[in-house]
Structures are given as C-alpha cells and as structure tokens.
Design goal:
heterotrimer; A: 507 residues; Rossmann fold; 6-stranded mixed sheet; 18 helices; 20 strands; globular; B: 301 residues; ABC transporter involved in vitamin B12 uptake, BtuC; two-stranded antiparallel sheet; 2 strands
C-alpha cells in the first residue's frame, strides 16, 4: 500500500478502506473508496454536502453494509455488521445529531448498551469509577445524574464523546463536531483532540470547515460525488486547494456591493420575548430595526433563540411580550397569511418541516402559502405551467413539475422555496439557514438572488449559523446568545474571532 | 351508606379493575418501547374467547388462562410484525386487528358453541377460584405485575433499553443493542398481559364468553395510560378509579335521585365512556407520550 | 431514504390493493377450511348471490351505497390527517336526526320537501357527532381514534335511550320509531324503473345510491380540485406546512371531522329514508367499520372508494347468501375479512411494496 510507505511502515494503518462501494438506489454514494487512516493521526474528511463522507463513516460504524469492498482494522479484515461490532473493534462515533435520550440522565445514557448485567446497580458503580478516571485524564468532568435534555449543547456533546471513551474506543470519528459550538468551544474541543491523540487515539474528523482542517488535522482526504479525490498531508496543501478539490470547478461566490440601504425603517422590533416548545423563555427582550435594501444578519450558535425569533416573526409562534411593527402595522401576533398580505415572506430553517410536502408534486408545493387568487378551484394546467416557468427561472433541476418534491436534492428544494417566496414580491424576507445541506453551486445561486433582492430594496433578515455566510452577505450583524442580543456590528468592522466572542457571551 | 356497603364497593371496584390494570400495563410496555397499541381491545377479546373455549373443553381454568395468553400473544405478534418488521402504520394495524378479533370470535363462537356466539356458562374448576375478599388469584397477579413493571423499567437493563427505545431509537441502535428484539419483547409482554386481562373477563368476572364482552375496556385502558402519563403506579390507581366508578355505578341502577327520578340505565352504561373522554380531553393536565411512539424506526442518514 | 419507494401509479392504486385483498382472501379461505367448510364452494355461493341475479345485483348496489358513504367519510378525514373510526356512531346519530327533523316537519308538509329536510337533519346530526371529537383533537389533543370509538359507544347508548323512552313507537315489541311519512321515503329503483315501464326485481336499492355517486363526485372536486381541498390535504400532510401557509389547522380539523360525519350520515339516509322508513336499533350494524376497509383499499380517493364499495357490497350480499345456505358461516366472516383487508392494505404496505418495487422500478436505476 502506497500509504504505508508514506507513514514510515511502523504500525499497520488503523483503518484501511479497501474499494468500499455503496449505492442507494440511483445514487452512487461511495465509489470504490481506497483510503488508509494511520494510527495515532488526526485525519480530516472533507467534501460538499452529499459527497459521501457520512455514508463512508456509517459503513465503518456498522449502520450500513457496503455493497462491495472490505474494511481492515489494524491490518486484519473486519466484519462490521452493526454498531456493536464496530464498538467491539474499538470504534466510537460522535454524531452530528446526538444519539442521546434526552429525558434520561447522563449515567443512563452512558450505560445504554453496556449495562454490565441484568440489574443496573453494578454497572452503574463501574461507570462512575470510570468517569472519575476520565475526568482526571482529560479534564472532562460531568454530573452523572444531570438530565441530558437540560444540559447545554456543548455538554451534551461531551456526553456523546464520553460514550466512546467509556468503552475504551481508540478510533474516534467526529461528524461536524463544531457545528453546534462557538469558536471558543471549538478551540477547547481541539485541545481535547490533541490530548487524545497524544494518548495514542486515532481521530477521524468530518467537517466542511477548511480553516479547522488546517488548524488541527495531520492529513486530509477530499471526497467529491462519492469518489476519493486525494489524500494530502496538511503541510502540503492549503484551503484554496482543498476547496478546489472539493468542488472540482471554480465557483464565483457573489460579493456584496456597497449600496447604502434606504433609510426608512421597515421592521421595528421592541423588547420582544417568546417561549420555546418547552415553555421556557427562548427570546429575551430583543430589539432591532431593519431598513429597506438592508440585509441584517443574525449570528449565533444554534439553540440560542434564533429559531424561536424567526418563528415568532413569521407568525408561527405566539409572542410573550413586546412589539413588532411593520410599516405602521402591529404584527406581533399576526398569522402567516396576514403577513403574506403585508408583503412579508418566510424561507424556513427546516424546509421539510415547514416549507415543502415531500409526497406532493412540485407544482402543488409551489402553491403552499401562495394560492391567494380569488377562485375556489385550482386551475391545474396553469399552476403546472407556472411551476415549470419558476423552476426554469430558479435553476431547479430536473425541470419536471410533476415529480414529487421529495425527489429533489436539498439544493434544488431550497431553490424551489426561494423561487416561490421571491415570486410573491415581498417587501420583507425572513430567511433561516438558507444554505443548510445545500451544494456549493446552489449556495452561490441563492446568495446571488439574496443580494439581487437587496439591491431592489427588499429588507432581508438572515439567520444563519455559518459565519462565512453572515459575514459575506450582511450589512449589519447581530449576535444572539441565550436569547438576547449580545452585540451589534457593522459589516467590515468585525471578523470571526470578534463574533465568536459575542457568540460565547463574552465581551 | 354503611361500612359494609362501602367495603363491598371497594371489593367490587378492585375486582372490576383487574382486567383494566393488565391491559393498561400491556399498553405501557408497548408504548414505552415506541409501539403504539390501539389493539388492546382485540387482544383482550380474543383472549377472553380462547380462555372460555379452553376452559369449556378441558374444565380447567388454568388451561384457559394459558390459551388466553397464547391467543393474545399471537395477535400481538401480528401487530409487532406489521409495526416493527414492516414499519407499517401502527394505528391502522391496531384497528384492523380489533376488527379481526371481533369477527373471528363471533364466527368461531358460533361454530363451536352454536348459541349465537356465546359460550355456555362455565362453572366449577373452569372458573377462577375466589380467594379472599371477593378477589381471585388474578388480583394478586395484577398488583404483582404493576410492581414488577415499575421495578423492571427503572432498575433493569431491559427496562433501560425499552425506555430509550421509545424516546430515541437511534440511540439504542447506536449503542449496539437490537431495537427489533427489544420492541418484539415489549410486544410479547403486552400480549401476555392482555391474555391475563381477557382470561379474567371470561373466567373470573363473567362465567363464560359473551360476544363483544370487552365493551371498550381496551380503549378505557389506553385513556387511563395517557392520564397516568405512562407510569406504572399512577396507571394502577387510575384503573382502580375506573373500577370503583363502575362498582358505584352498578349500585346506582334504578336508584332515584331527587328531582330527576330514576337514573336511566343508559346513563350508567355511558359513564365509563364519558369519563374516558373527560380524561382524554386533558381537563386534568396535558400528557407527553414517549417521543418516538408510533414512528417506525428507519436508519436516517 | 425513509420515504416509501415510489411505484408507477397503476401499481400503487390497483396491483397493491389487489395483492392485499388476495392475501386476506387466502387467510379467510384457510379459516373456512379450519371450520370444516369448503372455500371454493363458499366463493361460488357468494358470487352467485351477489352477481348471479338481478335481485342479487340490486342488493349488492344497496350495500355498496352504505359503503360509498362511510368510505368517503373515512377517506376525507384521512386526507386531513385524521383517522375517523366513528362513522358508525355518526350514522346512528344521523338517523336519529333525520327522523327528528322529519317528524317535526310532518306537521307542516307531507310532500317531497320532507326529503331535503330529512337529509339536512341527518347531515347536521352526523356532522355534530363528528365535530365534537374533532374539536377535542384540535383543542385538547385528545386522540381522535379513541374519542370516536367512545362516541360510537355513546351513540348506541343514546339511541337506545331515545328509541325506548322518547321516540319509540307505541305498542311495538322492539325499540323503533313509527314510520316516516310517504313523502320522506326515497324512491326505490324498482319504483323508478317501473315509472319508465321497466320491471326489475324488488330490492332495497333506492335513490340514495344516486346521492352516493353524487357525493363521491362532489368530494372529488372538493379534495382534488379546490383550494379548500388543497388546504385540507396540507393539514393532513404530516408536517407544519399547513401552518406555514397560514391555514388555521385547528379549524380545519373540526371542519374535516364535521364533513366526515355529514358524509357518514348518507348511510342513515339510505337505511332510514330509503329502506326501513323508520329508525331501528343498530341499523348501522357494522357498515361504519367496513367503511375503513373501503377507504384504505380505495387509497382514500373517491373513485377508489366507489370501486372498493362495490367490491365490499358484493362481499356483503354474497355473505348474506352464504349465511343463508351455510348457517355456520355467519356474516362475521365478512367482518373478519374486512379486518384482514385493513391489516394487509393499511399496515403491511411495505411487505408488498418491496417486491413490487423490485419488479417494476429496475429500469429507473441509472
């Protein structure tokens, strides 16, 4: 294996993926992947959404079986048919969406699957002892009786990680671990990873944040459309090269021109408070204004009230206190169709939950929230034609309005929703996570259109956890932390580090 | 009302609540593991029928109980197969199996007993013997079942995994435990418990099988479960409450209330159903079911 | 990956329900063998009874009328995301409502005006009996399956009370009302055809069959072609898109259940105004539950409902003939079969979908 010579041949690679191939129906998720992960290294796995990184790791962890190919652990061919097999091989995984049982305690979550016997008492004692050791070794203290659902996200991730460490995993796979962390917390996580590496653990890091890759990884592998493009030692590559390898072509990301926004405030929010689904205050005393032709970005780690803020403004959540005015109308408790009548449209954070019905055909999805004509009957042929036109204009592929919306990729679904909302000629557009799970080509398209709208005088409220996106598109930026506005900055006067401090509630 | 009457009501109430307690525990295990079970009614009915048939043919009550457990578990496994292995709609499955049980017991009842579906009256060893205070062995079994359920859920490996399966099945899968085996285990437990419920009905309370003798008790048990917020001991007390209500209602038959005259028998009959609706209407607080209940588990990636 | 594998339309709408029906029929045949009857013979008797004579066909269509109404009721509610098990009880109350309105109106008119009055009374009471569980689901979160089942029991109890104590006919052995006026009685098909000079056998088939077909057409237009129907389907789509679109989903839930109850009322119109001309106890005997099977087999689409209703009508009539010739096989066989059908069509979806997908979608793989 050429990889072995690169590594000096001392130890067999921790993992060798030998021609791993996997299809899901028509989608070729992994194409004969040939990859070796050295023992004791931090190996980053990068690629766009849909490139196949998660699939490969799911195969490693026993969620899926590869169609062909084999996996060698420490040079021996392995049989991984389920997560318990993977765990037996010493593989542990920290998922992007935590696999935690929220109403149960930390200890119960850690015991699950490895209870150590029919009755829980004995296993619990052993676990507590183990936790003490780990707390000492890695500075990873946690209250075993705390209820997981009530822990902050950073600590929940710690529980996820402990699940693997408590089982003595020596290969750790982390899937987009910093998606839910502030930059400060991400730094702490990386310090921990270096600690773990120092103790001989092998770490695979799935991420799309190239800056982090350069900061922490020893080597990086790039996947594109299911195939391995290449594996590079960090010293021999840089961000731009990785980005090019990920995308395979040059994509022009749009830039904001410096049009000054028109000065008329369109949306005024004063002392707005709202509760979340569990009845706790999620939005606390938020105030801001939004002008025509302005993009106001709201940054913050997920879970700090942005979702609830957006839902309240979009008429999907009642407000607790406060005032929301849109051009002399009081809209704090308006319903979505009241808002539509005023020219306010909403691109939801969770497109499958709010914006689309996957089993309905695309042309019917184009009518969701947009069927305000007077007649009681729906003119099918006209609606289908309109949908076809819109799909053309907004680059939704394949251009077939009769397909189920669920058959479209994430990026095309998002473009469809974008088209539907923009074609209603809004004056104010509420946008949540517009490029989550979207391929880079669609990201560029969406950003272009948002900037176009801004130039036409539309006011846009943009909520996103991607700091890149916020910094690139916004005229002004607000940071939310624990339901409050932690700070406000003008574009050009701030950067990731500055925003990161605000996101963490510091300064 | 004197002390003797009060004691009799409590005795009756306890006796009447036994099938409900079993059915409620059955629903508890099933839903805790993530499988919604609307089919408690059908399982109870087919169990009652099987018990009556077996007891009639052999003259032994305990064989009737075995037959009841067998029949109920079989029906439960059908539900399990549809819900777990085939990831089907659990509500439809429950409704369908209820209908199947209703039709099957009527059809077979007519064929076997030839008396329009009912069994001949059972007596002697074919009935469950009465112990003390008007209770049969089933009462003791029911209370033990509540105790065991509460302990098992809180303190055993199986209980922990079942609880996790109903809240976040992916976590169970991820921890390396077999979600399928867990859920089937819960479904089988539910079948066994409904078997006891049905046997109590036809061998303990009535003296044989009557068509549609469950009369909605399977659904009452579900309502009790929701009201008890899916916990074992509150479920016990709720079912006991229903039983006491029934016992009081029976005594009210024919009694005259001032100003209204004789209470119509239909008002008494309607009480359990009305009470169920009131419970479900949440006039006594909102209830949150296990998060994953009713959703088939598909590996999501 | 978690969405059901899409199949060609004809496979989804015809082959799958047919496969499910075949499985259910097979199980029923095994059951018949177990009780010592000959399934082939039973099938022959059923076919003869249902389709072998003009009279049989007439009865088949008469039963189908009931199934069209209850099937539509279940189908409409299902499209709104609600599983209405209460068609049975809604029909009972509708029957009471029709009789009450007709008896009240008989003081003022004896003519044809009684017909729409009776229908209105039926639909009103049916809608109410459906709306209450709908309200409980929308505003209190009470599961509509359990509440509608409770309301079925309550309807039976209430109707017995009314028939025995309030509306009952004097001097009758069984609980029933007196006959409704001639004007309120729907024309039978025999009478209709006789007016055209054609003689057909006497059967309960009456004008409500036409009303049923009309209702199916109206439901189709409403659900598939109207904006209201689109909003109803969005509400039933299983996510928050209805709320996102500005639809008042709570109001829609109550409305859908009310409409569902109003459709189930058609069954009462058939029985009370078309056949028996009075309210008998348990006149709804099981039609509501079979309606669930009819709706599921018909894929909750009005055309499918009509076709399934015809099928089940034939089964019912065939079952009656069978019970007549083989007393051991009671009508409960049809109930059992309905349960099996609902199970196979509704819950075992995946079992048929996977092999059918393998057969039919191979060419789609790139």
């Amino acid at each position: 294996m050429s990889v072995r010579s690169e590594l000096g041949g001392a130890l067999p690679p921790a993992i060798i993926f030998d021609r791993i191939d996997k299809r899901f129906g028509a989608v070729h998720a992994n194409r004969a992947i040939q990859l070796a992960i050295a023992r004791g290294e931090i190996h980053a796995l990068v690629g766009e959404n849909g490139a196949g990184k998660s699939t490969l790791m799911s195969i490693l962890f026993g969620f899926y079986r590869a169609d062909s190919g084999r996996i060698l652990i420490d040079g021996q061919e392995s049989r991984i048919a389920s997560p318990s097999d993977a765990i037996a091989y010493g593989i542990g995984m920290v998922h992007q969406h935590f696999m935690l049982v929220e109403p149960m305690s930390v200890a119960d979550n850690l015991l699950l699957g490895h209870e150590g016997g029919f009755a829980l008492g004995g296993g619990r004692k052993a676990l507590l002892a183990r936790l003490d050791v780990l707390a000492r070794d890695y500075d990873l203290a946690i209250d075993p009786d705390a209820i997981v659902g009530e822990l902050p996200v950073g600590l929940q991730q710690r529980v996820e990680l402990l699940k693997s460490l408590v089982r003595d995993a020596d290969i750790l796979v982390l899937d987009e671990p910093t998606a839910v962390l502030t930059p400060g917390e991400a730094d702490r996580l990386f310090a921990l990873l270096r600690d773990l590496k120092a103790r001989g653990k092998t770490i695979i890091l799935i991420t799309h944040k190239l800056r982090e890759v350069m900061a922490i990884a020893d080597r990086v592998s790039v996947l594109r459309q299911g195939a391995l493009v290449g594996t590079y030692p960090i010293a021999q590559t840089h961000e731009a090269a990785l980005a090019a390898a990920m995308i395979g072509r040059r994509v022009q990301m749009p830039q904001r021109t410096d049009d000054a926004p028109i000065d008329t405030p369109l949306l005024t929010v004063q002392n707005l408070s709202a509760r979340d689904a569990r009845g706790r205050i999620a939005v606390m005393d938020v105030s801001f204004t939004l002008r025509r032709g302005e993009i106001l970005g709201i940054a913050g780690v997920a879970g700090n009230g942005q979702t609830e803020l957006l839902e309240t403004l979009a008429g999907l959540r009642p407000h607790e206190r406060g005032i929301v005015r849109f051009a002399h109308h009081d809209i704090a408790d308006a319903s979505p169709d009241d808002l539509h009548a005023l020219g306010i449209r909403h691109i939801p954070e969770d497109r499958l939950r709010y914006g689309l019905v996957s089993q309905f055909p695309i042309w019917e999805n184009c009518l969701i929230g947009a069927d305000a004509e007077e007649s009681a009957l729906i003119d099918r042929p006209a609606a289908i034609d309109d949908a076809a036109w819109m799909m053309q204009a907004y680059d939704v592929r394949p251009n077939n309005p009769l397909l189920r919306a669920g058959a479209l990729s994430g990026g095309n679904q998002q473009k469809l929703i974008l088209g539907r909302e923009i074609e209603q000629k809004p004056q104010l557009l509420l946008v949540g996570q517009p490029t989550r799970g979207v391929d880079i080509g669609a990201i560029a398209f969406i950003h272009h259109r948002l900037l176009d709208l801004r130039a036409q005088g539309v006011a846009i409220l943009l909520i996103s956890v991607e700091l890149d996106e916020i910094l690139r598109l916004s005229d002004r930026i607000l940071v939310m932390h624990q339901g409050r506005i932690a700070g406000e900055r003008r574009a050009g006067e701030t950067d990731e580090r500055d925003l990161g401090l605000l996101m963490a509630g510091i300064a | 009302m004197d002390a003797l009457a009060l004691l009799q009501i409590i005795e009756s109430g306890l006796r009447l609540s036994v099938p409900l307690i079993f059915a409620c525990l059955a629903g508890l295990w099933s839903e805790k593991s993530g499988i919604v079970d609307i089919g408690l009614e059908g399982k109870m009915l087919i169990a009652a029928f099987a018990a009556a048939v077996a007891a009639f043919l052999t003259g032994q009550a305990w064989i009737g109980v075995l037959a009841a457990v067998f029949a109920s578990t079989l029906l439960g496994l059908l539900h399990g197969f549809a819900s777990i292995s085939q990831r089907g709609n659990q509500i439809i499955s429950g409704v369908a199996l209820n209908m199947l049980a209703a039709g099957l017991t009527a059809l077979l009842g007519n064929v076997i007993f030839k008396q329009g579906g009912r069994s001949p009256p059972l007596d002697g060893a074919a009935r469950l013997p009465e112990l003390a205070l008007g209770q049969s062995a089933m009462t003791i079994l029911a209370i033990s079942a509540v105790l065991l359920t509460a302990l098992a859920l809180a303190r055993t490996r199986f209980g922990l995994r079942v609880r996790a399966a109903g809240e976040n099945p992916a976590a169970v899968d991820n921890a390396g435990a077999s979600l399928t085996r867990l859920r089937y285990g819960a479904v089988i437990l539910a079948g066994i418990l409904c078997g006891f419920a049905g046997a109590t009905l036809s061998l303990g309370q009535a003296a044989g099988f009557l068509p549609m003798m469950t009369a909605g008790q399977g659904f009452v048990a579900l309502a009790a479960l929701i009201f008890a917020k899916w916990r074992a001991w509150p479920a016990f007390w709720t079912c006991l409450l229903f039983g006491l209500l029934d016992a009081v209602a029976i005594r009210l038959q024919g009694v005259s209330l001032p100003g209204i005259g004789a209470i119509p028998v239909q008002a008494i009959q309607a009480l359990p159903y009305l009470f169920t609706i009131v419970l479900l209407a949440g006039f006594m607080g909102r209830a949150v079911p296990p998060r994953a209940a009713g959703q088939p588990y598909v590996k999501e990636r | 990956m978690s969405a059901p594998i899409p199949l060609p339309v004809w496979v989804d709408r015809v082959l799958m329900p047919a496969s499910a029906l075949a499985t259910a029929a097979l199980a029923a045949a095994l059951l018949l063998l177990a009780i010592g009857e000959n399934p082939a013979e039973a099938l022959a008797i059923m076919l003869r009874g249902a389709l072998g004579s003009g009279e049989g066909i007439g009865f088949t269509l008469y039963y189908a009328t009931n199934f069209i109404f209850t099937g539509l009721a279940v189908a409409l509610a299902y499209r709104a995301g609600l599983f209405n098990i209460g068609a049975e009880g809604q029909a009972i109350m509708a029957g009471i409502g029709a009789a009450l309105m007709i008896f009240a109106a008989e003081r003022f008119t004896q003519g044809l005006l009684l017909v729409p009055i009776g229908i209105a009374g039926a639909m009103l009471f049916g809608a109410l009996w459906g709306a209450i569980p709908g309200w409980l689901q929308a505003w209190r979160g009470s599961h509509v399956v359990i509440t509608t089942i409770m309301f079925n029991f309550l309807a039976a109890i209430v109707s017995v009370y009314l028939l025995v104590n309030v509306m009952g006919k004097e001097g009758s052995m069984q609980p029933e009302t007196r006959l409704i006026a001639d004007g309120a009685q729907l024309w039978t098909f025999q009478a209709l055809f006789a007016a055209l000079g054609i003689a057909i056998p006497a059967t309960p088939l009456n004008f409500s069959f036409i009303l049923a077909l009309l209702a199916a057409f109206v439901v189709w237009i409403a659900i598939e072609r109207s904006k209201f129907g689109f909003h109803l389907r969005l509400t039933g789509a299983g996510n928050e898109s209805a709320r996102y679109a500005g639809i008042d989903t709570r109001r829609m839930t109550v409305l859908a259940m009310a409409l569902s109850g109003a459709l189930a009322a058609g069954m009462a119109v058939n029985e009370v105004m078309g056949v028996q001309h009075r309210v008998l106890i348990e006149f709804s005997s099981g039609y509501g539950f079979v309606g669930i099977a009819v709706a599921l087999m018909g894929r909750n689409h009005p055309v499918g409902v009509i076709l399934s209703a015809l099928l089940f009508g034939a089964l019912y009539q065939g079952g009656a003939e069978l019970a007549f010739e083989r007393p051991a096989i009671t009508r409960d066989l049809i109930v059992t079969l309905s349960g099996l059908v609902i199970f196979c069509v509704g819950a075992l979806d995946q079992l048929y979908r996977t092999p059918l997908a393998r057969l039919f979608t191979r060419r789609v793989v790139r």
